[in-house]
Amino acid sequence: MKYRCIECGKEYDLKEVRYRCDCLGLLEVVDEWKVDINKLRQRPFGVWRYRELLPVTSNRIITLNEGGTHLHECKSLAKEIGIRKLWVKNEGENPTGSFKDRGMTVGITKALEYGFDRVGCASTGNTAASMSAYAAKAGIDAIVLLPAKKIAFGKLAQTMIYGAKIIAIRDNFDQAMDFIWRVTKQHRIYLLNSINPFRLEGQKTLGFEIMDQLDFSSPDRIILPIGNAGNISALWKAMRELRELDLIDQIPRLMGIQAEGASPIVDMIQGKSKFKPVAKPETIASAIRIGNPVNWPKAIRAIRDSKGSVAKVSDREILRAQKTLAQREGIFVEPASAASIAGLKKLLRDGKIGKDEEVVCVTTGNGLKDPDMVVEELKRNIIEIEPDFDKLEKIIG
After folding, report:
1. Mean pLDDT (the chain, rounded)
2. β-strands 11-13, 2-5: how paired?
3. CA distances from 291 to 152, 227, 280 (A)
4. Which of 128, 161, 193, 370 is the most exposed place for a label (fewest CB within 10 A)?
C-alpha cells in the first residue's frame, strides 16, 4: 500500500503522515487488492465487511457499527417522477446520521495507528458530529472549526454533546478550512477533512455496499449531492476497484448535484472553463454550502471518467424533493440529501437521463439533523383547536 498523487503520479510510503503531494496534488491510497468476495459476504453487513479492501493494519478498530444502510426500492416515487427503477441508499441510517461515519471509522483508526491523541476538522456540521463521536469512542480530543451561525441545530447539538472543542469562525466554511489546514500543519493534530485520503477509503464502502446489495449488477447511474466532493471521489474509487477485481462488468455513470448558490464544479463542467471557487456560497442545504471543495479535481475525474454528468438545483427544488421523498416513501432526509432526488427530476426533465434507466440516488444525512426549514415550511398545516371533541370529529371527518 502507498499514497499516489493524482496529478504527477509520485508515490509515498503510508508510514508517512501526508495529505498532499509535494506538487500540492491530491493523494489517494493504492494497492493491488486481493479478496475472496464469498468470504467477505459471510460477515455482518457494514464498513468492516470489506476490511481487506481498506488500508488499516491495526487490530484496534474504532467503530460504532457504521455502514450497512438500506437500499430502498422506491416504487411510488419512481412512478411519480417517471423512471423505470429507483433505489435510495439512505446514509442517514449511520450511527451519527450521515455518510461521514464511513470515513471516520477508518480516519480515527489511522489517527491512532500514527500515534495522534488530537484530531481536527473544519465542518458545515456532519463532519464535526461524526469526528467528535468517533474521537469520543477512541478516547482522544476533537477540535472543530465551524462557520459561526451557519450550522444546523441538530448537527451542532451532536458535536457539543460528544465533547469536542468547538471554535466558531465569523466567516464561511472555506475560511474555517484554511485555518484548520494551517493549524494541523503547525501542531500535532491529525486532519480529518476529506482531503485526508483515509477518509475516502472508508467512504468508498458506500460503493461496495450498493453493488453488494444489487448482487454486483450495476445500475445505469448513481446520483449524489456534492459538497466538499469527497463522496463522489470515493464512489468512483470503489467502482474502479470492483472493476479491477472483476466483480462488476461496467461502472455506473456518476451524476453530481450541487445547489445553485454553491456550484463551482457544475459551473466548470457546464461552462467548459477553469475551476473558479464561489466566494460566498449560499443555499438552505447547509451540508453542501461549500464554495471551494477541496476534492474538486478528484470529482471532475470521477464524473468524466465514468461518462457521468452534473446539474445544479434551486433551494425550492431541493425542498420540494425532500417533501416528496418523505411523503411517497417515508424517508426523511436533510435538505442537502434531497439534492440527489431534485437532480434526478431535473435530469429526467432535461432528457439527460432516460425513463427506462435504473438509478440509485444517495441521500447523505438524516432529516432530523436540519429540521428548521421543514418546520417553518409546514407548520401552517398544523390545526390547533380548543378541547372540543365535536370539533375534532368534524375536522377529521
Report:
1. 95
2. antiparallel
3. 18, 8, 7
4. 161
Q: Is the distance from CB of 303 to CB of 232 less than 8 angstroms?
A: yes
Grid cell 370529529 is found at: 393
Helical (H) or strand (E) element with 39? helix 37-40
| Cβ pair 91, 364 in contact under 8 A | yes
The domain segmentation of the chain, as residue ranges, is 71-97+200-377
394 CB-side CA count, 13 A? 7
What pLDDT score was predicted for residue 33?
Answer: 86
Residues of the chain with pLDDT under 50: none
Sign of the dihedral defined by the CA atoms of residues 189, 93, 222, 281, in that order: negative
Residue 151, pLDDT score? 85
Give the closest residue to 134 by CA, choosing from 205, 206, 65, 204: 65
pLDDT at 378: 86
List the grid coordinates of 159: 458535536
Bridge pairing between strands 85-90 and 71-73: antiparallel
Topology classification of domain 71-97+200-377:
Rossmann fold (3.40.50)
- Predicted local confidence at residue 317, as pLDDT: 97
Please give the sequence-ordered ranges of beta strands (E in DSSP) within the chain, or none if there are none.
2-5, 11-13, 27-30, 71-73, 85-90, 118-122, 141-147, 165-169, 190-191, 221-225, 253-259, 309-313, 358-363
User: Which residue is it, cell 477508518?
Assistant: 106
Give burial (CB, 10 Å; 0-12/13-18/19+) of 44. exposed
